């Protein structure tokens, strides 16, 4: 079986390599010449545990090649970005999906399978993709098979979850579902659920919308707790001892290409009905401004104007900073009177913004932890001793060890930190 994956980003590349590592002949297609050259030299361009080792295996086996243009294949998998449109509801921009499908149409033939893995708005497969395919004269469900099979993986654990997670196969017809399911059965060990394309689209979106809404509840609790001088993290810990309660953890906002994006696709499709979803989005997008406001309060009478930010990625131990609230906070603080220094061991920073921990902590009046990288679990004594004022605000509740003499608080109890500064 020859599989062609169009789009070699955070999902497309691991998917392509997984198929290549399980006996398929795989061609990866992307528009970046530098990326293609690097991949064909056996090097991956994203940070993901185990991915380089997998690339090395398939490179040596000759089962994966990368190129700039599409060609004939048995299966086409589309895994390209779907950003928000610049409209009032931030609806789904399917132009990249349409371009990818158009690029494969000249090579489409009877018996082919087309799978859309990109996260898309409800009804996109039937309303947008199917007409493009059938413009060739081929009939979906009879001549070719079309399905939406959304990815459901966690960055940092992608290779394990590709194999073991339940996979949803949303075919335009029942036979489309059967054909697509047979493709993933090559390596998927989790359950394979066959459904309709629309149900698959909305299911993926609602998985992330549920999490976004739950985090919004936790973030709103942070604001309530700081107003009432009650530790939100302690409240969450106790509430979650109830057997039917699972409040998520609060933070500086929500990032990544799923939770920060997907809920808009749902609310744009039915804006009058999606009121709770829109409110949750508003709460989460307010958090960077909330954090910046608190930082400015903490720095009002600080001995220096220097603030040290730990982390730019949207989550720990990866290099992905798409939609990262840490980036938003960094940019907003940089526009103030403060001197802002940022550290991130996983994200490639411009040379002028690259500092050692010693340099970043020296003369700092506040350390703001924005990403839960493992490197921040322990803050070394020698770093803290270089600070002008040893205040730590941990927005991710990642710090486990902090030297004696430093003042450490989370966003769940930062009212204590503010009270201490004002005294």
UniProtKB/TrEMBL annotation:
Superkingdom, taxonomy of origin: Bacteria
GO molecular function: NAD binding; oxidoreductase activity, acting on the CH-CH group of donors, NAD or NADP as acceptor; UDP-N-acetyl-D-mannosamine dehydrogenase activity
Membrane-spanning segments: none
Similarity section: Belongs to the UDP-glucose/GDP-mannose dehydrogenase family.
SMART domains: UDPG_MGDP_dh_C (SM00984)
Protein name: UDP-N-acetyl-D-mannosamine dehydrogenase
A biological-process GO annotation: polysaccharide biosynthetic process
The enzyme's E.C. designation: 1.1.1.336
Keywords, alphabetical: NAD, Oxidoreductase
Domain called UDP-glucose/GDP-mannose dehydrogenase C-terminal: residue spans: 308-401
Pfam family, one: UDPG_MGDP_dh
């Amino acid at each position: 079986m020859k599989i062609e994956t169009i789009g070699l980003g955070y999902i497309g590349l691991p998917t392509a390599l997984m198929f290549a590592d399980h006996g398929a002949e795989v061609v990866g297609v992307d528009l970046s010449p530098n990326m293609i050259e690097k991949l064909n030299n056996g090097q991956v361009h994203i940070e993901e545990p185990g991915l380089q080792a997998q690339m090395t295996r398939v490179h040596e086996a000759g089962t994966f090649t990368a190129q700039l243009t599409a060609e004939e294949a048995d299966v086409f998998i589309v895994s390209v970005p779907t950003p928000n449109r610049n409209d009032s509801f931030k609806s789904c921009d399917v132009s990249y999906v349409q371009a990818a499908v158009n690029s494969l149409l000249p090579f489409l033939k009877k018996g082919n399978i087309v799978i859309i893995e990109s996260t898309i708005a409800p009804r996109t497969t039937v309303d947008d993709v199917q007409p493009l395919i059938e413009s060739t004269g081929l009939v979906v469900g009879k001549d070719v098979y079309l399905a939406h099979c959304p990815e459901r993986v966690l960055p940092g654990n992608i290779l394990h979850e590709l194999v073991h997670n339940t996979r949803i196969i949303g075919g335009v017809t029942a036979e489309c579902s059967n054909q697509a399911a047979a493709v993933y059965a090559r390596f998927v060990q989790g359950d394979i659920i066959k459904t309709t394309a629309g149900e698959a689209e909305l299911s993926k979106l609602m998985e992330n919308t549920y999490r976004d809404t739950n985090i919004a509840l936790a973030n709103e609790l942070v604001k309530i707790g700081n107003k009432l001088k009650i530790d939100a993290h302690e409240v969450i810990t106790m509430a979650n001892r109830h057997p039917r309660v699972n409040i998520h953890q609060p933070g500086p906002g929500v990032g990544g290409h799923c939770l920060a994006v997907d809920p808009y696709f749902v609310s744009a499709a039915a804006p009058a009905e999606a009121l709770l979803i829109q409110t949750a989005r508003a709460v989460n997008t307010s958090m960077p401004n909330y954090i910046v406001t608190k930082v400015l309060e903490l720095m009002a009478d600080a001995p220096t104007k220097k603030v040290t930010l730990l982390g730019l990625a949207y989550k720990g131990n990866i290099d992905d900073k798409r939609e990262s609230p840490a980036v938003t906070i960094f940019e907003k603080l940089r526009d103030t009177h403060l001197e802002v220094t940022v550290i991130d061991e996983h994200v490639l920073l411009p040379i002028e913004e690259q500092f050692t921990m010693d340099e970043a902590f020296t003369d700092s009046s506040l350390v703001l932890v924005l990403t839960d990288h493992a490197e921040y679990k322990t803050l070394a004594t020698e770093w803290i001793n270089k600070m002008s004022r040893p205040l730590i605000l941990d927005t991710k509740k990642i710090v486990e060890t902090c030297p004696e003499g430093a003042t450490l608080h989370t966003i769940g109890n930062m009212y204590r930190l503010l009270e201490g500064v004002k005294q």
